[in-house]
Automatic annotation (TrEMBL):
Biological process, per Gene Ontology: phosphorelay signal transduction system; regulation of DNA-templated transcription
Ranges of residues in domain Sigma-54 factor interaction: 154-383
Keywords: ATP-binding, DNA-binding, Nucleotide-binding, Phosphoprotein, Transcription, Transcription regulation
One Pfam short name: Response_reg
CDD domains from the UniProt entry: AAA
Stretches of the chain forming a coiled coil according to its record: none
Stored PROSITE patterns: RESPONSE_REGULATORY, SIGMA54_INTERACT_2, SIGMA54_INTERACT_3, SIGMA54_INTERACT_4
Domain Response regulatory: 7-126
Sites of 4-aspartylphosphate modification: D56
Taxonomic placement: Bacteria, Pseudomonadati, Bacteroidota, Cytophagia, Cytophagales
InterPro entries given in the database record: AAA+_ATPase, AAA_lid_NorR, CheY-like_superfamily, Homeodomain-like_sf, HTH_Fis, P-loop_NTPase, Sig_transdc_resp-reg_receiver, Sigma_54_int
Protein name: Sigma-54-dependent Fis family transcriptional regulator
Signal peptide, first to last residue: none
GO molecular function: ATP binding; sequence-specific DNA binding
Length: 462
């Protein structure tokens, strides 16, 4: 059996796992190194330049939270950004897997693993890594694995996204405050992480605060910290999120949700670069790079008096506008292919393909939930579809406002249009709109086959 030229590191605190992994993987890969001590990871990465790291999530006795695994995932990606990390744990769940993928892991493996599946996942990771390292970028392969279209967490080649990439490159090297604007699901956190990774603070902490999830009563305690006894449940002194981010980057998500009173408190801290913990009078200096994001119209809110103009000026030295998916349709095929690859692997459906009609429908849909909606739609379709091809009726396409108006217009037809061809076109349109583009349901209502309906769609240019 010929071995793949690939360097694999296995990190786990259980010796049995390391022995089993070494025996299995050495049959398939040229270099396999194991360690039970995660603190050796930085030195090993420096000495060997691993292609893939198979990383356990828990190292302390009895630990099940996976905090250690996420810590070492972050360290690996900072020290060796091109290394593929695959996480493994005996305590997996869907939320943990989703978080792992969001934070940069390539895949997620449950212990005890299935030997063939583990080898297949590692082979795929090694092959992708090899393609990146050797610069093989044929158009066909790029469309298949999307590696040529990645920009630090983003996928896309559209002019709108190229402008975003250029802005990130320019602003990341500075200490300027950045405001990221965009609809839900456009990738504001991805942009913030990209700025941090490309900045001088890349090796320091990246602290995220979702201001939409912080209640007004806990705002000061959460952000500024508190002393012991400052309030009923304050049983010990605790640093706030701003202190925790000192030296690194603070990402304030959903900043448009803050009330005017809380905006004033935040502005005071940002101006003075000092925090005072609740229950104390001692100011503590902070050194943060500030990135904020929101999907709300801040300039309109300033005019309406619901957002402070001085705070807006403080946080938006540079603005980055993330375009909605409907304004970057060139990227839909690439994104769909990327998500299909992820979920084919996750749900063990390697045979699944997108047919041309499905791609057409995906490209025409208005995607109100943007990339997040496309991600969820692709996962749902992979789970529920039958056969080896994803069809349009495997997806749910919510009608847009324009389609509602179109449906109302179809209720009437001019007397001059009473031809068989016009009536046929009208009935096909009505059926498609009624069933939100679901070909199977529309064909059933019209009393024809799906193939016949596809022919009529093409005939009438629908």
């Amino acid at each position: 059996m010929s071995k793949i030229s690939c360097k694999v590191l296995v990190v786990d605190d259980e010796e049995d796992i390391l022995v089993a992994g070494r025996l299995l993987l050495k049959q398939h890969f040229e270099t396999v190194i194991t360690t039970s001590d995660p603190y050796k990871i930085p030195a090993l990465l420096q000495d060997h330049s691993f292609d893939v790291v198979l990383l356990d999530m828990n190292y302390s006795t009895g630990a099940t939270s996976s905090k250690e695994g996420f810590h070492w995932l972050k360290q690996i990606l900072q020290l060796s950004p091109k290394t593929t990390v695959i996480l493994m744990t005996a305590y997996g769940d869907i939320e943990l897997a989703v978080r792992a993928l969001k934070e940069g892991a390539s895949d997620f493996v449950l212990k005890p693993w299935q030997n063939e599946k583990l080898v297949a996942i590692l082979k795929s990771a090694c092959q992708n890594r090899s393609a990146q390292a050797t610069g093989k970028r044929s158009a066909e392969k790029a469309e298949r694995d999307n590696t040529a279209f990645h920009y630090d967490g983003f996928i896309g080649v559209s002019p709108a996204m190229q402008r975003v990439y250029q802005t990130i490159e320019k602003v990341a090297a500075t200490e300027a405050n950045v405001l990221i604007l965009g609809e839900n699901g456009t990738g504001k956190e991805v942009a913030a992480r990209a700025i941090h990774r490309k900045s001088k603070r890349a090796k320091q902490v990246f602290e995220i605060v979702d201001l939409g999830a912080v209640s007004a009563t806990l705002f000061e305690s959460e952000l500024f910290g508190h002393a012991r006894g400052a309030f009923t449940d304050a049983k010990e002194e605790r640093a706030g999120r701003l202190e925790a981010a000192s030296g690194g980057t603070l990402f304030l998500d959903e900043i448009g949700n803050l009330s005017l009173a809380l905006q004033a408190k935040l502005l005071t801290v940002l101006q003075s670069r000092q925090v005072v913990r609740l229950g104390t009078n001692k100011p503590r200096p902070i050194d943060i790079r500030l990135i904020c994001a929101t999907n709300m119209p801040l300039y309109e809110m300033v005019r309406e008096g619901t957002f402070r103009q001085d705070l807006l000026y403080r946080i938006n030295t540079v603005e980055i506008h993330l375009p909605p998916l409907r304004e970057r349709r060139e990227d839909i095929k690439l994104l769909a292919g990327h998500f299909l690859k992820v979920y084919r692997q996750k749900y063990d459906r390697p045979e699944l393909q997108l047919n041309s009609e499905t791609l057409r429908r995906l490209n025409e849909y208005h995607w109100p939930g943007n990339i997040r909606e496309l991600d969820h739609a692709m996962e749902r379709a992979v789970i529920l579809c039958d056969g080896n091809q994803l069809h349009p009726d495997d997806f749910y396409f919510a009608p847009s406002e324009g389609e509602h108006h179109k449906q109302q217009a179809l209720e009437t037809i001019a007397e001059s249009d009473y031809t068989l061809e016009a009536l046929e076109k009208m009935m096909v349109q009505k059926a498609l709109v009624k069933h939100s583009g679901n070909i199977t349901h529309a064909a059933k209502e019209l009393g024809i086959t799906r193939t016949a309906l596809y022919r009529r769609i093409e005939k009438h240019g629908l």
